[in-house]
UniProtKB/TrEMBL annotation:
Pfam families xref list: p450
Keyword field: Iron, Metal-binding, Oxidoreductase
Top-level taxonomy: Eukaryota, Viridiplantae, Streptophyta, Embryophyta, Tracheophyta
Top-rank taxon, per record: Eukaryota
PANTHER family assigned to the protein according to its UniProt record, in alphabetical order: CYTOCHROME P450 (PTHR24296)
Sample GO molecular function, one term: monooxygenase activity
Protein's recorded name: Cytochrome P450 86B1-like
InterPro entries with a match to the protein in the record: Cyt_P450, Cyt_P450_sf
Protein family per UniProt: Belongs to the cytochrome P450 family.
Transport found in the keyword field: no
Length: 310
């Protein structure tokens, strides 16, 4: 066929695609907002900006009146993202009971087990009250202050001084995440993994937590993650290895705390794991409950504080 006639035949299709693209662009409330394509929705934009998702999402929310609904077309992905204080207050305070996480949330965040992040209703309230009660006692508050001061004096300041003496660049965000991971491990498990030691060693448990959190994030934009998890391929292969490392670390620590209690008692230990083990409520002494609670508390205290410091 003559190329000219082929071009003439394809010209209407090309014009339609251009007009349709401009139509899609005109629906956007912000230049940073991803285009909503047929079939796949916003998924291409989410994947393309995964490397700087938080900065990108901040820009979208700023230009979209602090609310944005992300849709994945036929993939079934659909999320409402908000940073509007009134919405946050409505969801987390005024009408919290109306917004259960649901079964799908627990499936995605399976590594957290039945901990407070996955819990709903009475289970959530019971865990929240128990954690608040243990954290409110003066002994734990004093333990927190002592751990924080010791970690800053014995790890953070020597690390920064060494970097200054050597004239090497220092990633403060990474340093603060390591600092808070060590501190949170000490408060929850009574163990300092030493992530902030000079030389920044690779700590298997810390690396496993990083891999697990990365996988949990990617599951939100990976429609076939369940199949990948079943086959243990791609990012889900890292998740499987990370979960084995996490479970092994927590199980060993729980076993050690139980052995200490039988041999010499750990009533003077102020870390949260010891407090749960010493608790008279038998439902709080189950190994599965202790594992899930400890991992959830570690997650709650690690990234939030590290991100705030940096």
């Amino acid at each position: 066929m003559d190329p000219f006639f082929l071009f003439i035949e394809l010209l209407p299709v090309l014009c339609f695609l251009i007009l349709y693209y401009h139509h899609l662009q005109s629906k956007k409330t912000s230049p940073l907002e991803p285009t909503e394509w047929p079939i796949v929705g916003h998924l291409p934009g989410l994947v393309a900006n995964i490397h700087h998702f938080h900065d990108w999402a901040t820009g979208i929310l700023t230009g979209a009146s602090y609310n944005f609904e992300a849709r994945g077309g036929l993939t079934g992905l659909r999320y409402f993202i908000t940073c509007d204080p009134s919405n946050v207050r409505h969801i987390f305070t005024s009408n919290f009971a109306n917004y259960p996480k649901g079964d799908e949330f627990a499936v995605i965040f399976d590594v957290l087990g039945g901990g407070i992040f996955n819990a709903d209703g009475e289970s959530w309230r019971r865990q929240r009250v128990k954690a608040q009660m243990l954290m409110a006692v003066p002994r734990f508050r004093n333990f927190t202050a002592r751990c924080s001061r010791d970690k800053v004096e014995k790890s953070l300041l020597p690390f920064l001084a060494h970097a200054a003496d050597e004239g090497t660049p220092c990633d403060l965000h990474d340093a603060f995440l390591r600092l808070t991971f060590d501190m949170t491990c000490a408060l929850v498990f009574g163990v300092d993994p030493g992530c902030l030691a000079i030389g920044l060693p690779v700590v298997p448990f810390a690396r496993a937590m990083d891999d697990a959190l990365e996988t949990l994030f990617l599951r939100h934009i990976t429609p076939c993650w369940k199949l990948m998890s079943m086959l243990e391929i791609g990012q889900e292969k890292k998740m499987a290895a990370a979960r084995r490392t996490i479970d092994s670390f927590v199980a060993d620590t729980v076993a050690k705390r139980r052995a200490d209690k039988l041999e010499q008692g750990i009533s003077d230990s102020a870390d949260l794991l010891s407090s749960f083990i010493c608790n008279e409520d038998s439902s709080d002494n189950d190994d599965v409950f202790l594992r899930d609670t400890a991992v959830n508390l570690l997650l709650a205290g690690r990234d939030t504080t590290g991100a705030a410091l940096s």
